[in-house]
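Workshop exercise sheet. Pairs work together: one partner reads the sequence aloud, the other fills in the structure field after running the prediction. Swap roles for the next sheet.
Pair: D.N. / O.F.
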Amino acid sequence: MQHPNSPSRRLRAGGAVALAAARRTNRAESLTLIGTPPSGEAFDPGPLSADPADEAGLRASTTRLLSTAFCEREDAPIEQITEWRREEDATPAAREAQLATLDGFDPEPLYELTLPVRVITGGADPVVDPNASRRLAEELPNGEFKLYPEASHLVTIERSAALNDDVLGFIQSVADR
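Structure field:
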């Protein structure tokens, strides 16, 4: 299971950073963006917010990031994520700094990003509207969209095996071009 606070997961700023880097360099051959909005305006940090000292608040925040079906059948991952968040969640100052990276974020013009990009999202994501992620993929010349309709914001946890297969297949398809 991927750690929920790994750099590629924190506030999904990693997708914004990847888009910005792809505009400045030709080093990337492809991008995979998970739960990434097309702009900072399409990002709602509310469901992510919780005081690390408030165990019930952390659990509630975590379950808001997962589908109801997942929460009903899987308790151990929720407990593990809640524990990780209690121990390692960003401080309020760090959270504000992370949010600031998305303030005014606008990767336009997207038509200039010609590398292959797979945009993946959960259909019940309360943080990034799935339609916003779909628009991102549609606005990219070589964008592809993959929706996991039954998953939420933590699609990488809910659908880890299928998502890993999808990402590996995408990387292989890029290598084969």
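Discussion prompt: The first strand starts at residue 31 and ends at 34. What would you look at next?
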